[in-house]
């Protein structure tokens, strides 16, 4: 089959969550919006993300061997659009205006306003046509705050019914804990308070969180 428009159109009927995947390249953060992210296994704890071949993020992950994924909340649509914008600067200035913290194991950036994060070491890299499949071993994970997830469907970002509750989050945390990874409400024992304080008390800057003027979205 070589009908890319049809495949893209049909695939768009499958709603997904949205994450921002980050890593470090020469001590500078790199990040991209991704919707091809999923959990794979609880034992061992594995997730996967598909990244376009030739992308800067993929090259950086191949070099660093680590990455983090932040699950975006419905209110983070502008951040999803920003990190998907190919015309933005690719250096650390891309994170200006975004509250961030350091993942507890790898040190990759986590978006502080997200719903949850996964802190990963690369377990295996597999070919996937014009993409690469990055299989990550979850070294740590946790919830960042309450809210509804941002979804991507039909080629656009959509929200969910605001009356919907995040049912099963406690069970999900228990499952993560049973898989031998750390889980909780923050990035680490020392970073938890900073992440939660920043999220709930107006983006206060700390040694682990930053808050600057937002970039313009094109």
From TrEMBL:
The keyword NADP does not apply. It comes from the Bacteria. Pfam families: Flavin_Reduct. The keyword Metal-binding does not apply. Residues 199-218 have a biased composition (Polar residues). GO terms for molecular function: FMN binding; monooxygenase activity; riboflavin reductase (NADPH) activity. Residues 11-159 form the Flavin reductase like domain. Keywords: Monooxygenase, Oxidoreductase. Signal peptide: none annotated. Residues 168-187, 192-218 are annotated as: Disordered. InterPro entries: Flavin_Rdtase-like_dom, NADH-dep_flavin_reductase, Split_barrel_FMN-bd. PANTHER family: FLAVIN REDUCTASE, FLAVIN-DEPENDENT MONOOXYGENASE, REDUCTASE SUBUNIT HSAB. Belongs to the non-flavoprotein flavin reductase family. This is 3-hydroxy-9,10-secoandrosta-1,3,5(10)-triene-9, 17-dione monooxygenase reductase component. It comes from Actinocrispum wychmicini.
């Amino acid at each position: 089959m070589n009908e890319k428009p049809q495949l893209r159109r049909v695939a768009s009927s499958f709603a997904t969550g949205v994450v921002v995947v980050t890593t470090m390249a020469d001590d500078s953060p790199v990040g991209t919006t991704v919707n091809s992210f999923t959990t794979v296994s609880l034992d061992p704890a594995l997730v996967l993300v598909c990244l376009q071949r030739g992308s800067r993020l993929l090259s950086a992950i191949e070099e660093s061997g680590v990455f983090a994924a932040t699950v975006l909340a419905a209110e983070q649509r502008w951040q999803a659009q920003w990190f998907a914008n190919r015309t933005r600067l690719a250096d650390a200035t891309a994170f200006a205006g975004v509250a961030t913290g350091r993942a507890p194991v790898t040190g990759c950036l986590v978006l502080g306003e997200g719903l949850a994060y996964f802190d990963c070491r690369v377990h295996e890299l597999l070919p996937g046509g014009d993409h690469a499949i990055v299989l990550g071993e979850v070294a740590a994970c946790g919830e960042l705050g309450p809210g509804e997830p941002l979804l991507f469907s039909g080629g656009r970002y959509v929200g969910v019914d605001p009356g919907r509750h995040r049912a099963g989050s406690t069970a999900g945390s228990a499952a993560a804990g049973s898989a031998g990874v750390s889980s909780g409400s923050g990035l680490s024992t020392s970073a938890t308070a900073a992440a939660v304080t920043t999220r709930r008390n107006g983006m206060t800057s700390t040694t682990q969180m930053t808050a600057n003027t937002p970039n313009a979205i094109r």
